[in-house]
Write a structure and sequence with these properties.
Elements: E1 4-8, E2 11-17, H1 23-31, E3 35-41, E4 46-51, E5 69-70, E6 77-81, E7 89-97, E8 100-101, E9 104-105, E10 108-114, H2 120-131, E11 134-140
Antiparallel strand pairs: 1-2, 1-11, 2-10, 3-4, 3-11, 4-7, 5-10, 6-7, 6-10, 8-9
């Protein structure tokens, strides 16, 4: 059973939240929902896409502790990065990923994992790389 749904054009991904591993981060992530924005290709991190625009009224994330944090997420892992050294973002790993910025490695809090269509994440990453940003909706299931 999924907790959240990510809709990117004609693709739908279902994900399970990880409240036992990252309770404060999952709670804050849920406060962002529903989220309608754009997903972009990462510049420094490998095979992944990310969201950095949360809209007006989004909760402040900078006070979140490091929880269940990852620098090297696996395909389907969803990280919430509070913006300690850079801007806050949500990262979706689509393949081999080393989460980083021009300042070096970043560690994002692992808040969810995609449960279905994980093999389609590679095609999503290539599509965003070759064709640019896409609209995304992230909502509770």
């Amino acid at each position: 059973m999924s907790d959240i749904v990510l809709e990117i054009e004609d693709r739908t991904f279902e994900a399970t939240l990880l409240p036992d591993e990252a309770p404060a981060s999952v709670e804050r992530f849920r406060e962002l929902l529903p989220l309608e924005t754009t997903v972009k290709h990462v510049r420094w991190s490998g095979y992944a896409v990310f969201v950095e625009e949360f809209g007006e009224g989004a909760p402040d994330l900078t006070d979140l502790p490091r929880e269940n944090h990852r620098v090297y997420p696996s395909r389907g892992d969803i990280l919430l990065y509070p913006g300690y050294e850079n801007v806050p973002e949500i990262l979706l790993a689509c393949g081999s990923t080393a989460f980083r910025s021009p300042a070096g490695e970043l560690a994002g809090n692992h808040v969810a994992i995609v449960q279905n269509a994980r093999e389609e994440l590679s095609a999503l990453e290539v599509d965003v790389l070759e064709n640019g940003s896409k609209p995304i909706t992230i909502r509770e299931a």
